[in-house]
Amino acid sequence: MKNKLIMAIALVMALVAGWTATTTTAQAATDDSLAQVQKSGKLVMGTSPDYPPYEFQATVHGKSQVVGMDVAVGKKIAKDLGVKLVVKSMSFDSLLVALQTGKVDMVISGMNPTPARRKNVDFTHTYYQGGYSIVINKSDKGIYKDKDSFVGKTIGAQTGSTMYTESKKQTSGTTVKGMTSVSDLILGLQSHKLQGVAMEKPSAQAYVANNKELAMIPSNFDLSASDTSASVAFAKGSTSLVAAANKSVDQIRKQNLVNKTYLPAAGKYLKTNTVNTSMLHYWKAFLKGIEYTLIITVCSVFFGFILGVLLSLARMAQGGVFATALRWLATAYVEFIRGTPMMVQVMFVYFGLGLIVNLPALTSGIIAISLNSGAYIAEYIRGGINSVDKGQTEAARSLGMTKGYTLRYVVLPQALKNIWPSLGNEFITLIKDSSIVSIIGVSELIFQSNIVRSDTYRGVAPIAVIMVLYFIMTFTASRILNHFERKMQHD
Amino acid sequence: MTKPIIEVKDLAKNFGDNQVLKNISEQVNPGQVIVVIGPSGGGKSTFLRCLNLLETPTSGEVDFDGQNLTTLDTKKVNTLREQMGMVFQNFNLFPNMTVLENIKLAPMKVKNISDADATKRAHELLQQVNLDDHADAFPTSLSGGQAQRVAIARALAMDPKVMLFDEPTSALDPEMVGEVLNVMQDLAQQGMTMVVVTHEMGFAKSVADRVWFMADGYIQENNTPEEFFSNPQTERAQDFLSKILM
Fold first, then answer.
1. Which residue among B88, B95, B109 sits closest to A490, beta carbon to beta carbon?
2. Which domain holds residue A194?
């Protein structure tokens, strides 16, 4: 019975997803992309800012912002269109989805216009022709010469990137390991889990220039032009926007702006970044991370609790067809949420729900985590209500109190006391699990630490810092919860 | 002559296949003290709980003050329940509230009485059950006898017309039974209508106006206490009394 129910839900969700997908293609067919951007007055650019010198985080006038040659390209396009550029950060994997779901207007992230990608999005002419290099540890310099020297060894590349695909295709006997961020790859290299990391030449140059332990070698990959060039991606069918952007891109090529202006400017930011790489220098970034982590956790627990109370009541509804339907729905919801990964739920809310209403990443994150947490809290509350002696309800009802009053003044306060330790557990788990929303670009603690890592080219220190910060948060939270638990004891 | 305050007509209650109450028809007049006695498992508690609809009767009707409870909507039933105080075997005090808060809760939430008035009335009731010095204690710190007296005060706070007692002394240590029975006796003398399910034969003898002997789902005998204890009519009652009275 239960399985049938879950199948039914899956079917409904698939239908919803299918329906929303068709609506987007329908939208794309009538191309008003350029007009829309001009109307809104801003051009939203999606990028994954952990890829210097293409794009990375730097402190400019005391404020952390995304800079690099791709941002310069984006600015130029926006300026030529007469609109403002808005930069949105997210992981490289999420970029194309964000483009397809309208979260961003364009993607500039050192992206190669491969045939596979062309099927899903439209590309401008290439604004930069690069090449691949492999970064290795300096101590290994004599050992590796190019891609073919890694037989029996492991090389790394960014997941979802062309380097990753080509490294798999064009090496034999070599293990290719994919990771989401380049800083993680470099860390893997330095801890000898990887022997080499394949990346774009300008990035490799930036890393080698800023880290004395590293060296670079040519990759000698056999690459067609499309694999080494970088283009701006737009949503499929936005012909007018692509045509407008092409004008800017052509100018960039003609005047050689990338090599003459953009790269040197990016280099300067890189230098300011690496002047001071002490963790203390980045306290603002960490503080912002803590702030967002706490916002997400507190909001999610709050809404999750309300949802949990409603769900648990629905699960215990008695009598009538309506009550039965309600009970079934609530049970199905709880089973479904508990049976799917929170990461998938976060992505579904941000990208999936985003097709219908355009929600900011933070809001999506809070919604997804509240929905998730509500299912778990519902089960705690149900257990808590069942743990309250039936005599309590009878006593309250015999005094003329309604069902609602009985629940509110007699049963729930006692249930809450019984489940307080479980609720506290959920709260502390959420402080840690809220890190999942970093994948949609919410600047919580994990996201911020990744930025600090790519800014400073230091792999371990930021991780150590956030570990301590997480512990301080969870420990403080558990002290506070204990305090209230003691207050509720009357024996 | 007087209109009965509670009238039960053909009341029956099944739990699954188990028929616990079989067509009971009786009435309680205002001011009467009814003591229901009988062997365990005879349906006494279920009968009492049907009177204020904590158990829903399977068939038959329960009239309270001229209104048939079984056909009323929930809201009406809630209002009529206020007028029937109930005292439980296990006290069922709210452990998360002080004695005073236990008593004040229903008057304030159900009758919208002000905090000041409810507090005043609660103190009066606590004086009546000799526990005013425990007003700010939590139930866990009370003895069984004290807890049951608080429970009685809590039920009285709603100014009920009838008080139902479901084995009020069964969970108590023997030396505490007296203090609870005294409070109940005082209440009876003040003219409160009471239906008491109990095993305290002494209480039945001295306080009851009528004794209902209940066994096997029927009220087997309805008699005055003098008649019932000296000259029981039914064989079932004779058998029961011979076992408990030695």
1. B95
2. 132-218
